[in-house]
Structures are given as C-alpha cells and as structure tokens.
## 1
Amino acid sequence: MRKSMFAAVALAALLGPAAAQAQTAGKRVQVTGEIVDTWCAVTGIMFGLGTAHHQCAVWCAVGGIPVAIRDKDGQFYMVLKIEDEDISVASPKIVKIQSHEVTVDGELFERDGVKYLLVDKVADDKGIVNLTHDEHGVVPFGE
Amino acid sequence: MRKLALAVVLALAAPSAHAAEPWGLKDEKLVSFKGKVVDVLCTLKGDCPADCGAGKRQLGLVSTEGKLFTASKSNTLFAGAARDLLPWCGKTIEIDGLLIENPAMPILMVQGIRETPDKEFAPTDQFEKDWTAANGKADEWWRADPTVKATLAPNGILGRKDLKWPK
C-alpha cells in the first residue's frame, strides 16, 4: 500500500502540476453535426456554413484555425484530436472533411464555456449535405 | 514641474495599453490580459507532449484568474494563432485582441503579444511569415496554398462534384 502511494506521488511529481490537475477522462458522447471552422461559424462572419462557405472552411482549417462540430441545436464542439491523428492544427483528416455532416464518438471535456471533443471514431460521414450556396452564393468574395 | 513634464513624456512614449483593433462583430469585446501559454489538450486531459506539441496542437492561455482561452485566430487572414504562441509555451505573456462572447462558444482572436508591459505588442503574423518562407510571396496565401489547391481540386469550391460554381 505504501509502495503504491509512493509510486503515485512520484508519478505526479514527474508529470508536473499541469498533468496532476488535469482531468484524465472526459464524458463519453456521440455528436452529430457539420464540421465547421470555429472563427467563421461562431462569429457569424462570412456565413460560416455549408456549400457557400466550404472553400473558406478549407482555407481556415489549413490555416490552423480550430475546427468544431456544430450540431442541429447550434452547439459547438471544438475538435482537439481525431482518431489516430494527434494533430489539431491543420489536421489533414479534418481538412478533408470540412463541411461534412458527421456522427462521431468521442470524449467530451467542458471548461469555461467551451466544449472540447476528442474524436475516437467517425461513425458516419454523409458528406456535404448543407446546400447553402443557392441562397448565399460563395462566401467570401463570391468566387 | 519637471517631474510632471517627465511623467507626460513617459506616458506619451509608453506603448499603448490596448492596441487591439475592433472588427465590429456581434458580442465582440476588446480584451487584454496576462496568461500562461498552454497546450489545450494537455491542460484538459494531462496528455502532454514536449514543446506544447511542437506546432501540431491548439494552444491557449490560462489567465491569472485560472480561466482557459483557446487562441483561435491570429492577425493573418484565415489563420490561427498556434504558431504565434508556440515560442511562449509554459511562459506567462500578455495578449490583446478580441473576445467574442457567443453563448454557444466564446472565441478569442489574439492580435498582439508582449512579454512585459514596457514592450509594444508584437502582431500575430507568424503563419504568414512561415508560409511565405516555405512557399514564396503571394497576395493571397489561401488561394496559392498547395494543400488548399489539392483539397479543393477534386470536387470544386462547393465541395461536391455535382454542384457547379458559377452555375
């Protein structure tokens, strides 16, 4: 007992205060929604949804702006990891599925008003189904 | 009198306390605060690679009040701020920028960074500098970028082969 307690204390000391304070597991969730770039979709600038904004969503994802899943209720889940790819800045997997309607299984952390999602698996990908260009054209710049 | 004059000169010469530019966005607030630069995933889960993920992970700031802000946007158009924060991993800096207080998700644009109050805020333009060094100068990096081109080429700018633009 004393040995295991000593080991736990030693491990916490090795990992440092950030690791010692961090949660180790989030809540298991399944989320369905559109893959969006957070800046345009959250601020509402450049109409950040669907086909009208697909090109800009790719620009932003490649530029390293965090990507989120926006569900049907308008809630955002910022993606910090996807499947086996431990990259959240210009993640090649995320860039490829910009604007897609997906269902994902993952781990949810909430802090200071932001929902953060670690995606274990993309369970379903319907592709791009939010056809917004008829109404909005291509945003921004029209081309 | 000389002390007063000196105080006026020092005040005029001092870097502005708040240099952020408004964008006129809904729920936008000009902010400036000190915070420790962190790897967001490390802070949440205790999954902590060296060097805050070496540019592959989203970075943020933990304010002196303990609040976590992910730095989502830089001064470069269509680009994030991870490259600007990376050199400061684990250190406390001061930033200025915009906080958009959308109830669905607050989002932070970092426009300037400085280490100490006696310095000017340095603009967050590292993405543009790195991109230009790697690809050469372009008026619009987002149209010239090889990854963007390769991503959009198969299906077009609407993202679907069956949809054409312009119609």
Note: Chain A has one domain: 24-136.
## 2
Amino acid sequence: MVKAALRRLAYVVFVVWAAVTLSFIASNVLPSDPARMVAGPQARPEDVARIKKDLGLDRPATVRYGLFLSRLLHVSSLPDTDAAHKTCGTLGPLHVDLGKSYQQRRPVLTILGERLPRTLALAVVAVFLQVLFGVSAGAFAAKRRGSAADTATVTASLLGVSAPTFILGLFLQWLLAYRLNLLPLDGFGKTFADHATCIVLPALTLGLFGAAYYTRVVRDEMRAELLRDYVRTARAKGASELGVVRHALANVALPLVTLIALDLGGLVGGAIVTESLFRWPGLGSLSVTAILDRDGPLVQGCVIVTSAAIVVSNMVADGLYGILDPRTRRR
Amino acid sequence: MRSSRSADRSLSPLAGPTRGLFGALVLGAFLTLGCDASLAAPMPAAHDGEATPVSGGVLHLSSFADIRAFDPANISDGLVVELLELVFAGLVNYDDEGKVVPDLAESFRMSDDGRSYTFTLHQGIHFHSGEELTAADVKRSVERALHPDTPNPMSSFFSMIEGYKELQSKASEVLSGVRVQGKYLVSFHLTEPDATFLPLLAMHTLRPVCPNGGARYSDTWHACGAGPFMLPEKGWDRGREINLVRHPGYFRPGLPHLDGVSMTFFVNFMTEKYKLARGEIDILREFQQPDLVRFQSDPRWLPFGQYEADKQINGEMMNTEMPPFDNVELRRAVASAIDREHYRLLKATALRSATQPIPPAVPFHENDWDCQKYDVAAALDHMKKAGYPYDPATRTGGYPDPIPYTLYQQGLSSYTAQVLEQDLAKIGIRIQMRVVNYPTYLALIGRRKTTAFAPAGWNQDFPDPSDFTDTLFHSRAINDEDSSNYAFYASKTADDLMDRAKHELDPGRRATLYHDIQKQICDDAPWAFTHYYRFYDVHQPYVKNYRTHPVWTHDVKFSYLDRAGEGTRASLSRLGLAPAAILPRWP
C-alpha cells in the first residue's frame, strides 16, 4: 500500500517536473526577451539592460534553471520575512519558492494563491452544471429512444458541441446580461453575493458546452445498459421505471467519473477563453497574460498548478473506480 | 442486423453533410444574435452645453488592457499614464494644446545658458498623506526614480541631468544636478542645454511622491502623490479595477469636481459597448470596427465623439545594413512605390496617410508637405538606378529574389503586408512573409543583421520630435540587441542635425532644423512612412468638461457629471466605499 502510494507520488513529481522543464526550455528557446516585455516596446537599450540584470536574466539559462529547481522546494530555518526568502511560502522549515513575477513584481505564490480559489470555484460549479444537465438530458433521451424528445435532446447536444465557448459565452452574455438584465455582464464582484451572481455566466457557458458531451455519453451508455439482462429482470420483478433508471445510472457512473476527473483537472488549469470573456480572475486569464508577456516565473507557476491538477484529478478518478466498481481493485 | 442499423440511425439523427450544415447554421445564428447591431441611445445630461460644474459622482472608464504597476518611477505600459496623471502632480504639466505650463511650480525660469532651470513651488500644497510638499520632496522623488535599483524603463531619458552617470554607477547616492535652494525652491542643472528637458519633466517619471514613498523604490509601496485624486486602501484590485477618490486637500480650490474615477481592466470590446449602454462606463474608447462606424454615423452619438491626437507613426522598415536595402536606391524605390491611400482604406476610421516621420500631433510636423509620396514612375526610376530595372508591361526584370518580410499576428500588419505585397509587385519586388508572435517580433527587429524588412511603428513617449527622429534614426540608437533604430540607419548629416536640434532652444531655429532632418530621412528612406494611427472615443452627454488631450489621451481631471440622481454617496457606494473609510486618512 505504502509502496503504491510512493510510486504514485513519484509519478506526480516526475510529470510536474517534466512539464515545468519543457516550459522552461520552450520559453528560453524562443527568440524573445522578457526584460524587453517588462520595459515596454519603446524602452531604450540601456534601460532594458538594467532591467535584465535586475531580473537576473543576464545569467545563463542553465544557471537560472538550476537556481529555480534548488529554490522550488528547500529547507530553511529563516522566516519568509527574511530578504532571501520573501518570495517563499513556508510550511515549518519547508519552503516553496516560485520566484517573483517579472511583470507584477510580486511573489508568484501570492498571485497563484489569489487566483487558484477563484478558478477552483468556477471549475466546480461548471462541472456540477455539466453533470446536472448532461446526466439529466442523457438519461431522459435514453429512456425515450427514437422519440421526438430523443431527437430534440440529441439536436440540443449537437448545438452545444458545435458552438465554441466564445460564441456560446457571447450569446449568453448578450441574452441574460445585456438584453434581459438578469446578471452582471462580467467581473468577479466584491461580496459573496456578487461572486455568486458573477459566476453564473462563465459557469453556465462552460457547463452547457460540457453538458453536450455528457448528454451524448450518458445517452449511449444508458441505452446499452437498459438493454441488459439485469434491467429486464428488474422490470419483470416489478421495479419502477425510476428504480430501473437509478440502477442503470449507477453502471454509467464509471465513464462519467473519468470525464469529470479530466474536466475538473483541465478547468483548474483555467478556462482561458471563458475567463477572459467574463473577466473571471482565475488561472486561465493569468496564464495567457503570463505567456504573452514572457513572464517566466509566472508561466512556471501556472504550469505546476495545471499539471499537478491534472495528475491529481486522474489519481482521484482511479481511486473512485475502486469504490464504484470493486472489480477494478483486483486489477 | 435490423436492430443494429436502427441503433446506428438513432445515435446520429443528423449525420454527414447535414450535421456540418446544421452546425454552421447554429454558429451563424449565435453570431447574428451576439453581434447586436443597434446602438443604445446616449443618456441625456441635465443641462445643455457646459453648465455650472456639479460636484460629485464617479466617472467610470474601462479598457481591454491592464496596468502592471502604479508608480511614476516604473511606467511600463501605455494605459497607466492616464491614471498616473490623476494621482501625481508635477512641477510642470501640459495644457490642452500640449504646451508645457507650471503646475506644482508657481513659476520657473531657465538660465541664460539654458543649462539650469529653477522652480518656485506653490506654498501649502499637501500630499495625499497630509504632509506639505517641499523642494526636498522633489529632490527625493527624482533620486528615487533615477536610482539604478529602480526598475525604471525611462531612466535614461534623464541622462542630461548633472550627476546622472555617478548615480547610475553608484559612485554617488545623490543626484548632484538637483539642488534644494530653499523650502519652496528647487533647481535642475543639465550637462548641456537640452530642448527635451522640460517636455520630459512634464511627464510622470519625476513627479513628487509622498514622504512614505521613501528615498528608494519599493514594489510594495502604496501609490501616493499630490494630484487631484488619490488611491484609497484596497483601491487597486490587480487585473480587475482601480478606484480613485477625490483628494480633499488638492491645491487648486474647488477641484476636482468628481468624487472619484474608476477604471475596469481586461474588458473585451463587445462588453465595453454593453457597459456604455447600461451606464456602467461613461466613455468608450475601444471599438470593434463595425461599431465604430455605427457610432460615427449615428447622429445621436456624433456630437459626443472625437478623434484623439495622431501620436503614432507607422511604416515599412528597411534594414540599411542588410541586402538588398543597403542599396539606397532600392529603399527609395520602395518608399515611392507604396500607395498610402491603400493603407488608409484598410481602416479609414483610424488611419491617415503618412508623409513624414513626425506625426501631426507632434511639434514641427508640417501639414502641407509630402516628404515622401507615392510615385510609381519615380519608383521605377530608382529601381533602374539600383541596378534592377523593371518593365511593368512585360513584367520582366526587378529584384531577383523574394525579400523576407517579418511581421506579427496582432493588429493591422497582416493586412498592410498584403497591400505592400501588391504595391511592390508593380516595381518588380517580391516579398516572402514570415509571421511570428509579438514578443519574438520585438526581439528580432531590434537585433543587428537579423531582420531585413518589417512593419514598424512608434508611439509618442513625450511630445517632442526628437522622440521620433533621434530614437528611430540617430546612429546613437543603434545597438546589437534592443536597438530602437530598427533600420540601423547611420548618417553623419542626419546625426549632426539631430544633435543640433536637441540642444537648440529657439523654436524658430528648431523648426528649420527639423525640416532638414525630415528631408534627409525621407530621402535616405530607412523607412517608407505609411500611416498615422488615431483613436476615436465617445462619451455620454452628461460627462461635461471632457476633452481628449494631446499627451494624456483623456483629460478627466476636472470633468464633472451633469446627470440627475447621482450624488456622492451613491457614487461611492457603487465603488463599494464608504466616505468615512477614506477621508480620515487625510488630516
């Protein structure tokens, strides 16, 4: 058990390290200058050179990479108020240091700490809506196969799949916020009530888009389940239709869990278009800005969170398989 | 078998081409609904014309961009300038016509040799933090901004101040060229006369900051100055919005009229239009092209729209160190072959044909002078002189190889490149487009012997012609990396003229010199100047005393809102601020 857990942990560390290293290499191979992006396109060479030195970009990439890795996780007895550790997050003597954003000149950990909860909130609400809409519609369509309702559901799901989030988002914004004035156009708000209303449009955009896939998956899986012997037996024994659907749904849960885990992991990395469209201040919009600005430390921070989220969500999904289907534990 | 076919059919009620067509229809319907063509009506003012100024209310602005820092010593984006203008006052500022006038200084005088400027401060000016502003604060703020540890992208602009080199090299911790002569008297001493000093001083970099800003820059400092508005605690929510409130101790009595100014960041263009319609913003400056045309053709909005000053020059850069543009005749051929009208028509609402390097809003631009112009016959003649004669009738001759042309994906350059390709084909020049992203483009264009041909542009840093001519065309601006002289153009004649113009303080003689400089540059053609870019904005009718500004874009410092039902309390409440939470900070 312990051995398996350690193997998993090593796997997580390897994947995150590989992702960060690749992004570090990519940002250093590209012929662009982060100091120029900080100074602005019109700064004079002498000012760019001074900023380059200030950011430590005058050192070779290998030295910077070594420094980054050695600082990423280190042990120190000094507090984070110490000058050499002011960009660190501390857990007792254990320090995590992602450095300072070139553009914002703040610790990357602080920035991620602000953004991650907002992205998590959006991801959870969006996935909840995906599951709610997708499973309901999929089960409904499967139960009425071949009927007009089935066709309508399939058509609606096709609509959802066909419309990219920026089109769907613009449409929902135009309809629900601008025309009907039911919701804020965009933003995050200041109070919890503000956050709750501001999250509706981005979550609905992501939720409807994702629900289309869920509908199709649940419909197809459910149809197959409803033709199985155990369903026929249950019906013969007088089980209600609701009971039959509940039994069938339990068996559809396995592929659904995979989808949910993948979606949740992906959304924690940030719903780039949707966050930007609705000014939801999460990791997606942050990642885009960081990449465009060649803000190396911030890009590395975003990559670590994104890759860790995907690996961890997959591990959670694996764990859930065992709970949902004990047969998989033996494998 | 039958049940299997049936199952397949029911899985895909819309299959093959039908599915594609259906998808396209859905997309079209969404696009049509999303792009609402109608414009909301302007919100009326309580009074026609400029009425007696009304105090109170918050002016709301927005932008698709963001600000990175909020400190006059660290200005690295274009948007923050209009916000800094509200919070930090300077010794001098620009008036509505772009002329340098005293602001915190009651008066100033230049020494006879043009090397010293002495400023007498108004007495009783208070910072947002309550302390009185003195000459010592001016010196401290200048040294803070120009210290080598400050990440100031504009430091080198002030290298003409005595002691700058010593401060930068850390040979000295003070700037000897700024001297406190009395509590309200401060002088600046230059190494030589410099016509750019006052225009640069009127910018934000050296503006006084509160004593709590200290003698050295800090990333965590909370912005505090002596301008008409101040930044309250938690007033700046990074990446989202900034809310400024009125400085009750502002030194000009009765001003500002507004209780606050708010700006929201990262708003997409479509949402900005909706926000204007819903009254969530009061001025709109960023448009999707069809919307701009709608605003300009709607008689309800037309009186409330205006163009901002042309402060940007754009052109086609030809690297004079690289073949084939090390041949001046070939450069002249390109400069003559480009029909500027073709460029203008790409975005007629924003572009104007360019004829010279200095844009129209900058001093010494000459309105009725075609320093470079479209002339195909002349272009063909230059091709012949260059050694590449071309016969348009038979389409024979011309430059034998395609010339690599490096462009980036944002903005207009992918469109102007197509116009360029067609115009140059008429004189036997072919280009080969290489599309890169913007950061890569920036790195490549400033690197020596790397980019032969590329679109280039320059925005005004400060309103002086030297910001264009010296930065883009002086040999001093050539560097192996990060060169701002993208064409790597070096001309002793042009250099001498630019040096003389920089140190010449007489406006008449400067005008003559800049005429000669432009003529020399146009003739040597390191760039083919193509277009000037200007922005348009609309404001709600109730925004009074609002105007575009030749330097600061918006001038909302002393604007007021003439809309019924919007009092101070309501405005602050919209900002989520209670007056009691803000005002006690100021004694």
Note: Chain B touches chain A through 66 residues (CB under 8 Å).
## 3
Amino acid sequence: MREVRLVYFAWVRERIGLSDEIVSLPEAVVTAGDLITWLKGRGEDYAAALEHENVIRVAVDQDHVEHDEPLGSAREIALFPPMTGG
Amino acid sequence: MAPAPSPLTARASITVRVQPGDFDTAAEIDALSAGRTDIGAVVTFSGLCREEKGQLAALELEHYPGMAEAEIRRICETAVARFDLQGATAIHRFGRIAPGDRIVLVIAASTHRQAAFDGASFIMDYLKTAAPFWKKEHLKDGTARGWVSAKDTDDTARDRWS
C-alpha cells in the first residue's frame, strides 16, 4: 500500500463529489488505467464519473500520462475530462 | 502532448501567467519586445468569450493550479525551440468571464513573420488540447448548460504539427 493524493477537476470532480482525497493504493494498481478501474469499484459516484474510461485524462505529478503508463512513485495524481481552455 | 523541448535559443524570453484578472495586450507586446532590436515580427492571438446567440451569461473557467502554468510553459519552450522564436508570452485567465471579455493571449516574436505566425498557432493548438483548463457555461436564464465538450477539430488542428 502506498499513499497518494488524488485530485479531480470539472465534471469528474462534480460526479465524484470531491476535489481531492488521500488514498492508499493496493500493490495491484500499477498503471493509470489500473487506478481508474480500482476507483470505479469504490462506489456509484466513482463509477458514474469514470464510466467512459477512454475520455478520462490522467496527470502524474502534474505531467500528462497515457492509461498504460506506470504511476511509479507518484505523490499527486489528477483525473479530469478532455481540456477545453483557450 | 507537446514534444519535448530542445535547448532554448539563447535570448528567447518566455512569460507565462495564469490569473483571474484581465491583461493589457499592448503592454504585453511592449514588454516582450522592450530593449530588443533583434525582433522583426510579433504575432498576437486573443481569445474572447462569445455570447452564444445572446444566451450566455458567463463562462466559468476551472484550472489545475501549478500544472496549468507548467504545461503552458512546456508548450512555449517547445515552440521557441521549434520555430526559433525570440520570445513567447501566454496569459490565460480563470474564474468567471463575461461575453466580450478576454480569456487568453498568446504572443510570438521572431526575426521574420512566418515563424511568429506558426509559433502563435502552434502554442494555441497545444494550449487548447493539453493545458488543464475547463469551461462551464452559465446561461442568462440562471441555468448552467454544463461543461463545454472538447472538439475533435481541436485535436486535428494540433495533430498537423506532429
């Protein structure tokens, strides 16, 4: 188990109902995709927020990563929808 | 994601700000070119809040503090290296923004015009698809229409650079 801070933005934040939280990740959670799958099992709100896995973007310590990339020794992991700035 | 930047041009200046307040476009152009005689071209892009046929009361812009600045800086560094820019400025606002108000400013400076046009365009294309900002629309009737969806055309615009 390792502790990380999860942060959520836009409709991911609204659907989960939290802007951030500290969680202990099981060893089986290796990649960003593993994290999404694990989070979906934490409750209905998470399942609803992360229903369309493919559109969910992940940043590890404020750097974009693909779903198949390892989380490594991340301290902060962010999950959010496709970006719409500019 | 923007390709990794290569070492910067020696005198390139990069300014990145993420702020709630408005900015002065002319002052930012002056700041980028002040005291320099090697710049021959400056291109600016301003993004404004549209009224959406009179329905929109305001946009609410959410961002990821820290990463927003870092990602825009990475994009600007890549643009400076790729187009040999003399400088780049990118300012993005967050919070509540009314129709007609400025949202984003990008300035690219170079020796000749084409690099400045390309640099500004490149920075905007990556900013829209990789900088962590999200827009929510609030309508005049008091309802929230919800989060703006990302456009495939923005991905296409970005992909022409790769």
Note: The helical segments of chain B are 25-33, 67-83, 113-130, 152-159.
## 4
Amino acid sequence: MAAVQTSISVSAHKVQRPRPLFARLMSDYGQECVIIAAILLLFVAVGLYNPRFLSASNLNTIFAGNAYIAVAAIGMSMVIITGHIDVSIGALIGVLATISGTLAVSGYPVWMAWGAPILLGMAANFVVGWLVAYARIPSIVVTLGMMSILRGGLISVTGGTWISGLPKAFMIAQWKPFGLPFPIIAMVVLTLIAAWWMRNFPFGRSLYAVGGNPEAAKATGLSSERRVLAVFVIHGAFAGIATILFATQLQVIQSTVPPNLELTVITAAVIGGVSILGGSGTVIGSTLAAILFAAIGSALIFVNVSAYWLRAVIGGLILITVLADMIRRRPKT
Amino acid sequence: MRRSMMTTLLTLALSAGTSHAAPVWTGADDQPTSPLACDGAPAAATPVAYNGGTPTKAPDRKGKTIKVVDVPKLVGIGYFNSTSQGVKDAAKELGTVDAKTDGSTKANIDDQITLIDNYITSGVDGILFSANDPVAIAPVLKKALAAGINVVGYDADAQPDARQWFVNPATPTGVAKSLIDTLAKEIGQEGSFAIVTSTFTTPNQARWIAEMSAYQAKCYPKMKWLETVEAQEDNILSFNQANTLLNKYGSDLKGIIGMTSVATPAAADAVTQAGQCGKVSVVGLATPNPMKPYIKAGCVKSAVLWSTVDLGYAAMQALRASADGTLKPGDKTFKAGRLGELQIINGSQILLGSPAVFTKDNVDKFDF
C-alpha cells in the first residue's frame, strides 16, 4: 500500500512520464474491466456447461436482441453524469415506437419513419431539459410527470392496439451488413463515438465538471444550464435511435409502454460505473453492463435457474456497485 | 394426524409424478386441477343452484320490442368493437331488440357506474355489461334489477347476485385442452415443447398452465414439457426468451406455446427469423390481428382465443331469453341462436364453449 502511495506521489511529481498501461486502465476503467471479466467468466462457465450457449445464434440473441437497451443507456449515462435522472425513457420509447410504426404502415418513406423518433425524442427532451435546467425543477419530478403524460396519452390514443403490416424496408434491426446484425454495429459505433466525445472534447469533458461539482463548474465559467439542456436533447436522440432498434425487431409493434424499461436502462448505467451522484462513469461501462444483464438472463435459462434470480442478481450488483462508489468517494484519511 | 400424513404422502406422490413428467418447474399454480376428458366429452359438472339475481316486478316483455344498452369495459378497442358487433348481430337476428353500445374510452369503473346509472334513469329494458370491477359495479346493477331491468354480463363478471346471467368466454380447463390439443396436432404426441408466459405469478396464466400440465400428463403422457420461461408483457423480452429457447434446445424443441397475446406473436417472430418455420410450431393465446402476418406467412397454423363476436352474440341472446322468460333459474342448458345449445355452469354462468381457433382460413374474419 505504502509503495503504491509512493509511486503515485512520484508519478504526480514527474507528470511527463506516462503511467504503466495496466495501472492506467485500472484507475480510469476499473469498473469496465470488472464487467468485462464478469462477462468473460460467465461465457466460459456457461459455455462449458452447455456449449450451445456460445453458438452464433445465441450470441446474436444476447448482443443484438438487447442492443437497444445499451443505446438508450448511453444517453442515460450522460444525464446521470451531469447529476440528473430520467425515468420517462421507457414511456418515451413506447410512444416513439408507436409513432414510427404508424408512419411506416401509413406509407410514409422509411427514412421519415426512422427520422421521426429521433427528432421527436430530441423535442420531447428539450422540454424536459429546459424545465430541469432553467425552471430548476428536479429532474425526477419532471420526468415522472413526463412518464405519466406519455403513458396515459399512449393508451388513450391507441387503446393498446397492435401495429402490423410493417414494410420490409423498415426492419433495420434485421439488416446484416457484412454479416453482422445492424443493432450490434449501432451499439458499438455509438458507444465508441460517445465515449470518445466525452473523453476528448471540451464540451464532453465539461459534463463531468457540471455533474461532479456544479458550483465549481460555475465558478470556472461553465454554464451548467446550457450543458444540462444539451445533454437532455442528446439523450433524446439516443432514445430515438434505441426506439428504431426496438421497433424494427419484430413484424408487429405493440402500442404500449414496455414494462420496466426505464429501470433496466438506469440499472445498466449505474452498474456500468456511472455514479448515481453524478460526475463520473463512462458510456463504455453502461454498454458492457447492458451486455452483462442480457448474458445473465440468457445464462439462467441455459443452466435451468428460475428467472427470479435475474432480479435478485441484478439487485445485488446495483448495491455492490453503489457501495463501491461510495467507498471510493470517501475522503481519504 | 393420519389425514395430514395421508395428504403429505399424496402430495409427495403427486409432485414426484409431475416432476417426472416435467423436470423443470412449469410455472403452474398449486391449486387442484381437473383436466377435461381427452376425447372432448363434457365434464360432469356438479350442479350448483341458481345464484344470479332476479329483476323485481319486471313488466311482461314477452315478444315485445325491448330497448337494450351494452356497456363494455371501454369502447374504441378491437376486442370490444367485436363484442359489440356480436350484440348487433343477435339484435338484428331477433328483430325485436333495439340495442346500442355505449361506454367510456377508458376502462374506468367510475365512468361505467355513472353511465349505467344514467341509463337506468332514462329507462331501458335490458343492460349488458363487461365489468371493470366485479365488486364496485354490483350496487348499480342491483339498482337496475330492482327497477325491473334485465341484466346480463359477459367477458368480465360482477358478483353473481348483481346480475341474472353471465356469459363465460372460456374455462381454464377449456383453454388448456384447446392449447394442448392444437399443439399435439402439430408436433405429434411425442414432441417436446416449451412455454413463454407473462410472469409466474400472473393468476390467469398460472391457472391455465396448471390445467395444461394436468391435461397433457393425462392425454399425451409422451409429450415432453421442456421448460417455462417468463417474459412479462414485453414483446422484445418475449422475442429474446423464445430465441434463447430455440438456441438452447436446437432441434429437440418442436413447439412453443405463448401464454399471452404478447408472447405468442413474439415467439412466432423468433421462429420466423431463425428460419425454423415448419420445424418449430408456435401455438398460443393471441388476438388475431397481431397474429395475421405469421398465420398468413404459414409460419403459425393456429392461434387460440374465444370468439369475441360470439361472446357478444350469446350475451344478447341470453338477455332476450331471460326477458321472455324462456331462460330461467334452474336451466341446465341454453339455446343461443346460431351457437346452438350452450352449457350452464356454476349456477348462473353460460359457457360459450371451446375457445375459437384462428387459422389461415378464418383469421381475416376477425378484427381485434
């Protein structure tokens, strides 16, 4: 321990010398490394128990079938990093999916059916972001209200009917460019872009400052209002993309809100290492966490364990992650 | 003491029996089951005395044109549009009924009570209803009976003494028989199958699964129940769970039963996208509209649900007959127009009969 302390203080003095790769990885991406290790362990263990778990079709189910959760979790991570939360994401995706599907079956061009959820997601979250940033209403209150409006509105308008007869060209989630399912490509590309932006661009980096210490951020001249509003709008765009992946997976769309989707998305962000207190975490972590859940859910079926355990396991993971976060943040004595 | 020991032994023996048939937990509830006969002979129902209500001082309506209002849980959705169609069909056929459907656009019990109350005041001869809440609706229905109005329920019952008759769409044993028989016809009497349900604690599904398990053990003992997975009422989760079943069992899996109108189309989509149409059968409870793409593509041969048109039709017929006095307490059967003789069970419930099976040939006739 003492040696580590010394090496840190030494490296602090000699700033030019880069830290060893492993130490850098562990300090910057500790949670991500833990999740990768967990995913690999799970794949090896369940793969040994039943090799079919590692078949191409099952990997496709795990990765492509849940990519929309990972994509939604990217935006959610940004929102949580700036110190806010959005519980309306599930309802928003349900509403946007219904709109997108309705446009597709009504004969509008496919690009419009794809574009509408992204634009409308940004518009809806502009309102939310404005209320949070400028009207200073806590985000949990604004998004709870939004959730009720969207849920209630959707049921009254559609009566819970189904949309079927979707055109083949609409089904982008079933595309396989270069033999890879489109949802997986979208998930990986969007995660990397978002991670790169948040690490290397001043605006992206400033989100951590706004979430970590709003007063200090303000003192250094960062407008937290503008950033919070921007983050909500970006989050809306990711919700729109997640909606497209969600709505184009099956030939029918159920015009109701998918149950507990908001919790799944928030949980992915939190277990991915995004601090619920704001100010730290990465979107790579949230994507990995979304993959981890999907893999756990599939693994439980392969090893014949009741799905009840999925909830218990995820609940346990949340508590452990948040506890670890709290311990990390405790002032060092 | 001895009795409790006997019970324990019996339970153990039974659980050993079911665990032999189904090594993995099935998702059934733990209430007793009473599977129907394999050949479709009607179950010997224990007679229950009439327990419905009676309108007081009802005027003689025999042969006279009556004014009837149909109040479903809500209006504007396919399900109740089609029950309403059935009511209209029956009214037209009878010729002596002036029937209309009126309801709230939300499934709201307060709105429903207010509406029924208004119709009592305005003066109708008969009320048909599908209750949003069996207890809360009872007082206003009793008020209608007290005003001499004939009251018949369908789809969702009220407390028995608050109405005269209730048209019951399907019994758990009937649902179980339809699903397992349909599956057996498609995958053979020795096929292996898995189930996608909502959650293990949903009462309807748990009851149906319990009856399915009992009926399968009795009538198709060589069929193999591989597993039941839960998928809530989430279509993407249902899709992923069905895919995982396909991945896990490969060619050992011959059939998937969807227990909800969400799970069945999602399972059908999983089978379609896996290119397993024709190799893995999908049957299940489902409303016809979401099933149309899969049934028309030939990937799904049949989906099961009661015919909602017949449900409304039977309710209207029952109301006319009770107004005429031809359907009266103590009757064992009821002749419901084109549906023929329907069984009366549990004192005052008219059983619609076996659930409807939607296939390529008839699915376009249904729109809900």
Note: Chain B has two domains: 66-170+307-353, 172-305.
